[in-house]
Write a structure and sequence with these properties.
By secondary structure, the chain is α+β, with helices and mostly antiparallel strands. It is built from three helices and seven strands; from the N terminus they run βαβαβββββα.
Length: 132
């Protein structure tokens, strides 16, 4: 099973922002300070799950993880597919940086049939109550 990553989507209040960003077809590059030690596991079918306003709402498949620079200028670049895949809402507390995210913890992808016009907050609450 692939290993995933979870990260806060700081400054973004809705999944639609990521979807609009993905429309240009260009991969999204996310910068982090530290390179994951388990990067090869994530490059083999893993995704970056985005936490938006306190809930995991979507994911983007990871294409590449690379380290650039040396010393104080060293940083990690995570290249993501432009495709944004919505997931079932999953509440998540704030944290700094990124975390590994095991496949067994990851929320299920939403299919077109699952997608609704419900606000994300209401969908999350229904999911937490077990009604959805």
């Amino acid at each position: 099973m692939p290993l995933h990553m979870i990260k806060l989507c700081v400054g973004v209040s809705e999944v639609e922002w990521l979807e609009r960003r993905a429309e240009n077809g260009q991969p999204l590059i996310v910068h982090t300070r530290m390179t994951p030690k388990r990067a090869p596991e994530m490059e083999d079918g893993g995704s970056l799950y985005w936490v938006i306003k306190g809930s995991v709402l979507c994911r983007q498949p990871i294409l590449d993880i690379s380290t650039l620079g040396e010393g104080a200028n060293r940083r990690c670049e995570i290249t993501l597919e432009p495709r944004v895949i919505r997931t079932a809402p999953l509440a998540r507390r704030p944290f700094q940086g990124w975390r590994y995210f095991e496949a067994k913890e990851a929320p299920a992808d939403l299919t077109t049939a699952d997608a609704t016009d419900l606000p994300d907050d209401l969908a999350r609450e229904l999911r937490e109550l077990g009604a959805w």
